[in-house]
Every structure is written in structure tokens, then in C-alpha cells.
Amino acid sequence: MNNWLDNFKRNLLEVLYRADQPRDERGRWVSTGGGASFVRDALRSGGFSYQPIGKMSPTSGCMVSLHSRFGGEYIVELPEGAAVDSEEVREVVQAELNKYIQKHVQLFKETPNLYAGGWVEEGKFCFDVSENLPADDMRNVVMTAMQRDQRGVYNVETGDYILEEDYHKFL
Fold it and tell me: What percent of the chain has pLDDT over 70?
């Protein structure tokens, strides 16, 4: 049993604290790379998708959440009265993102087309695990979203949100 725990800790540290990931003295991502820059951008633009093992964001395809398989979205209340892109909010979101990625690290390692997703909605920051599906098969994207009871999907290539009421256009 100790061997399993030692391997788990080693794998977790390998993913979370590699030397090429810029972090501050408390282990948080810093803006010279890694998480802080995309958290800052996500707070300004409304969302992000990030593959923590490959350290990349998707440049093509559509994002469809898996959240119902993982007990729902993980929701973080933003500090009341703070500006969405403030340092205070950024610190809260970064800390929660680190926890969220740690919780799902093995899944991200095993499945490279899964991403940590995050977005701002009604004074809250929501996280989920999303799958990147090819945009050249929108029927499959929409069918997958419907099977997962998703209100919408995000097309990375066009920047469009395809809402549930428009799914019929792709069937």
C-alpha cells in the first residue's frame, strides 16, 4: 500500500511542480506563464479550456463538458464586491483551479483530449472537465452534448457558443 501512495505522490508532484512551470513561492502559477495568465484572460473574456499535462489550450474543435459524470460543475463564489479581473478574484480562482486540477490529474494524464474548463457566470466561477471533439463533425458534437444534458458547447475555431435551442440545426 505504501508503494501505491508513494507512486501517487511522485506522479502528482511531477505534474504539479515541474521545473518548467513558473510558480510563485506558494506554489501558485505566475503570470510569466502557466495558469495565472490564462486565469487573468479567462476572467476578462469569460472562460478558458486548458490541458494541464500538455500545458496547452485547444486551437480547434468544440468543447463539450463531461460534468454530469463528475458530480456536476465545481462552482466558486467570487468575493462580493470585487471586480471580476481583480487580484483578489484572480488569487481565489487560481487556488481553486489548482485544487480542481489536482483532483482530476490522473484523468488529464490518461486522456489528452480532456481539458479543465472554466468560465464566469452570475458572480461565480465554474469549473468542469471538457472533451475536445472535432468541429468537422458537428452532428457528433451536438449528439454528445445532448447525451450529456449540456445547455451548450463552445466552438474553439469560430469562438461561437452553440446553445441547446440551436442543436437541431446540426442534426
Answer: 73
